[in-house]
Write a structure and sequence with these properties.
Elements (H helix, E strand, L loop, with lengths): L29 H22 L8 H21 L3 E8 L3 E7 L3 H22 L3 H16 L8 H16 L7 H15 L1 H11 L7 H8 L5 H26 L4 H8 L6
Length: 267
């Protein structure tokens, strides 16, 4: 009697042939997911450091950089629209203020939050790519020093030197990977400037009003809380947009990122 044919063995499941690079362009990698979590954590940390007495002095140099850029945008808009600068204040405790004569008031006033958003967005992108962080570290290095022209506080000057030293040192930490987190911190601080500005104004009654309050004075039919809500939504939307752009534009492995960054001033 002939033997029954044996059952063919069950083949093992085939490994996926789809390379990891074929995932959706907006699907974050594991490294990019970490960046998203860090952005949220940094926003909470900055809010605390910006507003808690005594502790807030620790980030004075970073606040000066953020406030200084914000006021520089007001100054630029005033000059471009034919205005004249009467007075400039850049202070980590009382906030910033630019007193302008002439110019286009709406353009000058809106330029502050818009400028903070755009610079913050650029630094947020640096959180996704080491090469971008390396390039923007030069902007940060110069930007930390410039406000010292108006500063006489010895503690702030000492802290500024410390932050500059950190900036240089981070070039040599894990192939300059540490620069990404430094720049990302600056990016979150700038792109959400309206949050810190409004909190300072509403809860801590700083000497210089927030731009949201100034908008309410310029356009009295719309309350300051509505202007604050509008600009907060505006900056949150741009933060989300820059995060999506970072996921899309920098979908590379850590090894590829290191190799790319090594092409620019390798350390």
């Amino acid at each position: 009697m002939s033997a029954l044919p044996s059952r063919p063995p069950v083949a093992p499941p085939l490994a996926s042939t789809i390379p990891s690079s074929d995932v959706g362009p907006l699907t974050p990698s594991s490294d990019q997911i970490v960046v998203l979590y860090v952005i949220v954590a940094m926003a909470v940390i900055i809010f605390g450091f910006w507003n808690v007495p005594v502790v807030r002095n620790v980030i004075n140099p970073l606040k000066l950089f953020t406030i200084g850029w914000h006021e520089l945008c007001h100054i630029s808009a005033a000059i471009l629209s034919g205005g004249r600068i009467l007075k400039i204040t850049i202070d980590p405790h009382v906030g910033g203020a630019t007193i302008v004569e002439g110019g286009t008031p709406g353009f000058v006033l809106s330029s502050g939050y818009i400028g903070s958003t755009l610079l913050g967005g650029a630094f947020v992108l640096a959180g996704w790519d080491t090469l971008v962080a390396k390039i923007l570290s030069f902007v940060l290095g110069v930007g930390l020093v410039l406000p010292l022209v108006l500063v006489r506080d010895k503690l702030t000057i000492l802290l500024t030197l410390c932050y500059e030293a950190l900036l240089v040192g981070f070039w040599f930490v894990d192939h300059a990977q540490a620069l990404r987190w430094y720049c990302l911190f600056i990016g979150v601080m700038n792109i959400l400037f309206v949050v810190w500005d409004v909190a300072d104004d509403r809860f801590f009654h700083k000497t210089n009003d927030s731009d949201a309050t100034q908008f309410a004075i310029l356009y009295p039919r719309i309350g300051a809380h509505i202007w604050a809500t509008f600009w907060i939504i505006f900056q949150l939307a741009f933060l989300a947009g820059f995060a999506v752009l970072g996921i899309y534009a920098f979908k590379i492995t850590p090894e590829q990122m290191n190799a790319q960054a090594a092409s620019f001033l390798p350390t």
